[in-house]
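Reviewers of the previous submission asked for a worked example of the structure-prediction workflow described in the proposal, so we include one complete record here. The input consisted solely of the amino acid sequence. No template or homolog information was supplied to the procedure at any stage.
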Amino acid sequence: MEERAYQWARALCYYAGEDEAFLEGFWQRMTQSEGVYREFTYYLEHQNFLCAYKVAGYSVVDIMVWQMDHFKAQMDRGKDDMKSNGDKMLLMAFDTMLNMEREPARYVDLMQTETGTDYEGKYV
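From that input alone, the workflow returned the following structure tokens.
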């Protein structure tokens, strides 16, 4: 399974436009995290989220929803690098979860205070 998961990570990175250095860093962190690795391989096998593992109460789906909110705000501002790139959105959700394991307070704060919703005065 590990070789198959690595090849899938490589493909996701390729389709997301990430380089070999990103892949190696991502994979190293992935193999050091039993919880995220289990979520990653479950998704690979089932094309669905397990959501059994959470960091500070957040699942990979919660992270993906938060990132999609940002994605919509970027599109509103004319930036659309993930417009048709579901692979990148998925990869970044797992990457963020790995980062969140190391800095949970930082990411919880971002998820609770930083929304993608535009409102008057947000960018002042």
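The chain has one domain: 2-113. We consider this example representative of the routine output the project will generate in years two and three.
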